[in-house]
Amino acid sequence: QAIDDDCNQTGQLLAAMLDWPQGTFASRVQLESGGVLVEREVDGGLETLRLRLPAVLTADLRLNEPRYATLPNIMKAKKKPLEVLPAADLGVPAGPPRLKVLQVQEPPPRAGGEKVESVESLLGKLRHAGRI
Prior knowledge:
- The protein is an alpha+beta fold.
- The chain has a domain at 1-76.
- It has three helices and four strands.
- The chain has a four-stranded mixed beta sheet.
- The radius of gyration is 24 Å and the shape is extended.
- Residues 8-89 form the Electron transfer flavoprotein alpha/beta-subunit N-terminal domain.
- This is Electron transfer flavoprotein subunit beta.
- Keywords: Electron transport, Transport.
- One of its GO terms (biological process) is fatty acid beta-oxidation using acyl-CoA dehydrogenase.
């Protein structure tokens, strides 16, 4: 799960950057020779896509049944060594970063809310503030 506010941006952006086909919200995936069939839920029912490989797929909750880690296995995992591999060992070309962070700052604090007695009072305050 990505940290993009569950807006389904990460898979689509990655597919666009790689210029690969994409199948989002996959609820069923079936490999074929040279491609993949992706079944996804849409407003009108189910949609089936046939994509060539390589492709970027994002998963729907119905794709798999999650396995939950037990406490003893979590404790065992903490003791296992973590192997760190340089990107060059994996065949990933090194190069200048594509992004440059110019500045990081917290947003300004939000002003507190205010209760109003009636709808007319609310509309008056909104008009005064130039919101409507």
